[in-house]
Design a protein that fits this description.
- The chain is an alpha/beta fold and 351 residues long.
- The chain is built from 15 helices and twelve strands.
- Strands 1, 4, 5, 6, 9, 10, 11 and 12 form an eight-stranded parallel sheet that branches. Strands 2-3 form a two-stranded parallel sheet. Strands 7-8 form a two-stranded antiparallel ribbon.
- The two termini are 16 Å apart.
- The protein binds zinc ion (ZN).
Amino acid sequence: MSTPASLLARVRRETAPAAKRLLFRVGAYDAVRRVRPSDGIAILRYHAVCGPEGEAYVEPSICVTPAAFERHVGYLTSRYRVLPLPDAVACLRAGKSLPPNAVAITFDDGYADNLPAARVLRRHGVGATFYITTGCLSGEAPFWPSEIRQVVARITEPVIRLRAAGSEMTIPCATPVERRTALRTLAKLFKSHSIPVRERLRDELRAAAGGGETISHMLTWDQLRQMHGMGMTIGAHTVTHPNLPNAGLEDARREIVDAKVRLERELDAPVTMFSYPNGGAERYMTPEVASLVGQAGYDAATTSRNGFAGPSSDLFALERVQVQERVEDLAFALEVERFAFKPASRAVAQQ
Ligand SMILES: [Zn+2]
């Protein structure tokens, strides 16, 4: 049986761009939205807003260009009710209906390019929730998913040898294809170990590159305060971006609590929204981790599970919609996918 994620991937893959463009141009999505308004909420999941220069710090599949983002925001504000996520959560918690065709915008990680994105949102009179990896702002420590991209680009040997995980690993990185594969292998490795082991692997990787400087592409605390002052919601995305179930419960608790404490101190405001780092095929959240988030005093948490949130959603396992570059794809997701990807029941969400 296919999982919702693989089904979603298939629906997206098998619906040709030309078909989506045609549906968009003839107003099919506008018609669907008017005839069958959505009673759930699409919580959109963005990461970086950048051009090709972003390849230095972020996986291209999770970037949208500034021009596309501007189009997305124009499209959303003219057709949907863009709600601050805490307002939507308050509605769901109180058992009240959401306004029809509700959308909330979220960003994971805390890239510096999120500041101009916040300005675009403000110009259109809406806000978003920005989930911040608190240990990586102002260049305090490199954000590991960005750092591995820069370190692998510096390696001149044809292979990377790592030993910290118990057995020696040899990762080829002589050609561009091998380097791309190496990045996927390293990301998987970094997510699948405890934080101390991940840090040892990171040191070995840095040594393999013969040192060199990693440039921070993350926000500074001043920029974050600026965004908060613009009315943006700031949420937490842990301190160092681990896969929380693999961090062990004590380190997971520290990552969840310390991120909240730091943000509240820096912003002098309560922080109530949390987003679990990572996603995909690996387990990145569990019921135990979700209860740590609740115990830490957050009101809600978003996942990387594709879907539309609604009254039956678990507030600590809210589904999101991963955003793609073209506005036609965004429209397709909002109007067609919602029929296939309804909120999972609480029982299912806890698995
Ligand atoms: Zn993340």
